[in-house]
Amino acid sequence: MSGRVAIYAAPGTTADDGAGSLLREKAESWLGRSVTGSAVAAAAPKGWTRGAVDDITVDARRYGFHGTLKAPFRLAPGRSLGELEAAVARFAASRPSVSLPEPALARIGHFFALVPGAPALPLNGLAADVVMAFVEFRAPPNAAELARRNPSAMSARQRDLFE
Known about the structure:
This protein is an alpha+beta fold. It contains seven helices and four strands; from the N terminus they run βαααβαββααα. It has one domain. The chain has helices spanning 18-31, 50-56, 58-63, 81-93, 121-133, 143-149, 156-162, and strands at 4-9, 67-74, 103-108, 111-116. The strands form two sheets. It has a two-stranded antiparallel ribbon. 8% of the residues are buried.
């Protein structure tokens, strides 16, 4: 596989997550794209036109409504997508769901995102566990990836984690 993979979480993908389902369905209707791959009827919030929503969701529509647990990476040599999918399924089956505090809108770099509105230690723990549990699947960064991340601007800890 020559592309990149990532590990994301999305609310409302299980039958017992009614509030998460409502949030996901509303976000997907604004984005016109579903993380599940199912068809979505694009809609606009009251007082908005579909064109105005499209104008401000260009990047978000590309990625869909999700939370990143492990940022995109290339698979390590000798690893397959099937192996990663099986490992993710085993990991997910071994973990309880994580409840989140009420979300808040925050600016992250050049975009806005919903983030936990209060400390979310269980979520932070899950994200850290995901990063470490799947490190063996990640290929080391190539020269282009290193250059794009500008390692000279990173702290020593950031460089260690990136490399």
